[in-house]
Amino acid sequence: MEAERILLILLGIVLFVLLVMAIFIAYYVLRLVRTMRGLSEQAEFAAKNFASFSSTMRKAAKPAAVSSIVGSLARKYFKKK
Question: What digits encode the pLDDT tens for the residues 43-55?
Answer without folding.
Answer: 888 888 877 777 7
